[in-house]
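agent> fetching stored inputs for the adenosine monophosphate docking request
agent> found them:
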Amino acid sequence: MDLAFVKLSVRNIHDYPKPGINFKDVSSAYRDSEIFHFISTSIADNYLNLGITKVLGIESRGFILGGSLADRLGAGFVPIRKSGKLPAAVFSQSFDLEYGSDTLEIHQDALSSDDVVLIHDDILATGGTMGAAISLVRRFGISNIYVNAFIELDFLGGKESLDPAVPVWSLIHF
Ligand code: AMP
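agent> prediction call returned; pasting tokens
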């Protein structure tokens, strides 16, 4: 197993969910047990010995590897969800999409200022989603934040749009 093989396992769905978008379908990679294990292990290995205490997964595809990463790193798992999904008191952060806007939320009691946080999503595209997630984590006064995506779409410049103080690392790049 190697990264080139993993890259080939990500299926492209053209013109989904709308014309002109080349959708990267991670389900075609995750459904293979050896590939899923390799992805999870490779990402977790990059964050060993950093004292990560919480892995945050972004709804919904960030939940899939997020739980696995939390377990491998000996950390807890915290969901970042779309508006109205979390039952207790939340912090909210809106962000712009190509058309319109969206809102992410996190439980107000999910983190404390001394947590070391790894935020994970399946894909880092323009960075709008991840930027909102970082803003939510900052609300807790947390300074130790790491960002990971399984896939980074380099041509969209998401990494450059994020807080330069936050290390960003992705397993594969297109
Ligand atoms: P962005 O906020 O532009 O960085 O977009 C990141 C979010 O949108 C992630 O949660 C991805 O799951 C999803 N996403 C963006 N672009 C794609 C794409 N080309 N294929 C699949 N999912 C995408």
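agent> quick read of the result: The chain has a mean pLDDT of 97.
agent> awaiting further instructions
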